[in-house]
Amino acid sequence: NAGVTQTPKFQVLKTGQSMTLQCAQDMNHEYMSWYRQDPGMGLRLIHYSVGAGITDQGEVPNGYNVSRSTTEDFPLRLLSAAPSQTSVYFCASSDEGQPQHFGDGTRLSIL
Amino acid sequence: AQSVTQPDIHITVSEGASLELRCNYSYGATPYLFWYVQSPGQGLQLLLKYFSGDTLVQGIKGFEAEFKRSQSSFNLRKPSVHWSDAAEYFCAVGAGTGGFKTIFGAGTRLFVKA
Question: Can you give the C-alpha Rg of chain A in angstroms?
């Protein structure tokens, strides 16, 4: 069972570079979301989606972009990386709304 | 705006002792409430959830939580802690239409001593 797959697991970027964090789920879940986790701050919601073609902003959307062209995939794009975006990123999916299944995370460092 | 407060950054309990982790939320309507656990070997996992009805909800791994509307609280409890319960615990509230916008607290790290 693959569940929620995130790639890459680790990434180092330079300030100003762009990149896409990939997230795929094979459970046919309608709901998907992206979180970032920073020490002492828990998980903060970046963007979420309630189905293909439908996305909405979370708590900290600035500097990030998402799209949901298929049920399976929910990529997160960093438009112009900044050191403040150094974090661990988690993708989650669910068939109920709240996150149920999480990926293993992507550890991102911006230099 | 909705928010979640977990007053304790970390808690230490002895193995076999009871546990209560505190959670307070702020939300204008009836909330959807959740507890998650994050441990190195198992990643992030949903422990239990409250949508409506009985205010005492049972979860996995012997955990339970009680919703108290008058106190805006949703505390997590376990009668007897095992060493394997050492982890970080997050309370969360589902807000917005359908509760899809899930907001997490900052977390409480649980240490278990022998």
Answer: 13
* DSSP conformation letters of B15-75: TTS-EEE--EEE-SSPPEEEEEEEETTTEEEEEEEE-SS-SEEE-GGG-EEEEEGGGTEEE
Are the beta carbons of B44 and A33 separated by less than 8 Å? no
User: What does the alpha-carbon distance between residue B112 and residue B33 come to, in Å, rounded to a whole number?
Assistant: 25
Amino acid at A104: D
Chain B residues with CB inside 8 Å of A102's CB? 43-45
Region A20-47: mean pLDDT is 94
* Token pair recorded at residue B86: 């050492």
- For residue A1, pLDDT beyond 70: no
- When mean pLDDT is compared across A48-52, A66-70, B6-10, B40-44, the lowest value belongs to B40-44
Distance from CA of B91 to the nearest CA of A (A): 9
Chain A / chain B CB contacts < 8 angstroms? 56
Q: Give the separation between CA B51 and CA B67, rounded to whole angstroms.
A: 10
Which positions in chain B touch A98 (Cβ < 8 Å)? 32, 34, 46, 49, 92, 94, 99-100, 102
Give me the phi and psi of B69, to 5 degrees please: -65, -40
Q: What's the pLDDT score for residue B98?
A: 67
Is B90 an interface residue toward A (CB < 8 Å)?
yes
Contacts of A59 in chain B (CB under 8 A): 103
